[in-house]
Amino acid sequence: MQETSTSAVVQNPSTKVEAIIRAERIEKYYAQPSQNRIQVISATDLSIVPGEILALLGPSGSGKSTMLRMLTGLSTPSAGQVYWHEKPIAGAEVNVSIVFQSFALFPWLTVLENVEAPLQARGVSRDERRERSMKMLDTVGLDGFEGAYPKELSGGMRQRVGFARALVVEPEVLFMDEPFSALDVLTAENLRSELLELWANKAMPTKAIFLVTHNIEEAVLLADRIIVLGRNPGHIRTDFRVQLAQPRDRKSEPFTQLVDYIYKVLTKPDVAPAEAPDQQAGPRIRDQRQMHYQMLPHARPGGVAGLLELLLDKGGRDDIYRLADDLAFEIDDLLPIVDAAQLLGFLKIEEGDAAITESGTEFANSEILRQKELFRDAAVEHVLLLRQIRRALESKSDHTVPEDFFLDMLDEQFSEEECLRQMETAVAWGRYAELFDFDAGRRRFVLPDMQDEDIAAIEDAK
Ligand code: ADP
Ligand code: MG
After folding, report:
1. Which regions of 304-344 does DSSP assign to beta strands (E)?
2. CB neighbours (10 Å) of residue 427?
3. Class assignment of domain 301-370?
4. What is the whole-number distance in angstroms between the Cα of residue 170 and the centre of ligand 2?
């Protein structure tokens, strides 16, 4: 429990501007029947300042929704304090709205009545209610739907109602808890751009947006600042600014670098996060040596096969977090497998979805021997270390190479411990693909069809 914000990389202390909402060492724990209590959030400082979209990103169960509830005043911290314009939030007149993933509309009210509801709760007169609601429905593209009931609308339109209802009260801070997660990819994309447009054109009086999401690309697309939460208990792992100009290009180098950076922070919960990449220099000249070897994700080939088969079963595409849930996997265990499949060109990550590629589909549909061949081709094509080991074995007359030869190259780039893990993974992949074998006694790579006697003979001949 002592691990708190001290372990975080705080590159963005928003201390200079007066915060709208400021949380000071807030914690949350839940009582248990057994007297023990479960700590869900460890002591955390966090400020929401005007002018920015702040994304709170983290695996499910890391406490994002709990944090949002405390910051809005919906839930009281077990320790620490939340301030609204420097007054304790409990007694303050808080002007925030929340958009939920589940839309949370009243099914028995029409679209218009749903949007009017929060105004009615605030005692706004009937005429003004109607006028403001109609205007807001127009703004979010629901002109003509005011008499419809939620069940008559598509998911995307329901979420538009959710936005209209949230914005109609002109909140100073707009909170959103995974607002696009229940929508299909295209609808989500449209709504995101429309929201950004409203924000950029100042079409809403809202001064700050707080977005909870588990979608890395979504955070990088929208946010001016990203906070990544770790779990058990929830704590800030990194907090940094996104300085890319809007509209952002998912395919640009700084964008993908940032996505990779966050991905690494999320996949390595035990490693202190590095600094976020510098985003201002444009495409950077890469340090050749540093970029030499890819980091092999520590996943077994069988895991990659299992994931691809499951993905194919689900129509070739699924949200990574949903996959983890379905498999009853911790996301941190699933991500290296996803990473490995991606490295091998068997799947692509698009908006937090894992999408199987053509070669991934072929792999998943093949018999085990054919899978090995396809894995071998992919490994040689995409993984430098495996390609080098194989080449070295083929070109040497005795077809064996000591492990140290490759360790010496790897240790330019990785820690000693990581070098060993990289080797272990390379051996597992190489063996599976029958690219090479590894003689653990002699610490040498050998071509796979070589028998022990051959190796011994070669050794003797020296
Ligand atoms: P996230 O939104 O990141 O998925 P939540 O904030 O919903 O995470 O939950 C964080 C953790 O707190 C989870 O492990 C969840 O089980 C636990 N939790 C949430 N609400 C309660 C509660 N009322 N009682 C006990 N545990 C809870
Ligand atoms: Mg949640």
Report:
1. 317-319
2. 18
3. mainly alpha
4. 24
Q: Is the CB of 60 under 6 A from ligand 1?
A: yes
pLDDT at 349: 83
Q: Is there a contact between 75 and 101 (Cβ–Cβ < 8 Å)? A: no
Res 291: pLDDT: 44
Ligand 1 near 405 CB (within 6 A): no
Cα 318 to ligand 2 centre (Å): 19
CB atoms within 10 A of CB 277: 14
Query: If you take atom 23 of ligand 1, which residue's CA is the nearest one?
Result: 30
Neighbouring C-beta atoms of residue 300, cutoff 10 Å: 15
What is the DSSP annotation of 402-429?
Answer: EHHHHHHHHTTTS-HHHHHHHHHHHHHH
What is the average per-residue pLDDT within 112-125?
A: 96
Atom 17 of ligand 1, residue of closest alpha carbon: 40
Q: For 9-267, which CATH superfamily applies?
A: P-loop containing nucleotide triphosphate hydrolases (3.40.50.300)
**Average pLDDT over all residues of the chain:** 88
Task: Summarize pLDDT for 339-387 with one digit per residue, the tens.
Answer: 899 999 999 887 778 899 999 999 999 999 999 999 999 998 889 899 9
Domain ranges of the chain: 9-267, 301-370, 383-461
Give the nearest ligand 1 atom to 63 CA. 6
The two beta strands, 173-177 and 208-213, are: parallel
CA of 354 from ligand 2 middle (Å) equals 21
* Confidence band, pLDDT 50/70/90 cuts, at residue 1: very low
pLDDT in tens, 128-157: 999 999 999 999 999 999 999 999 999 999
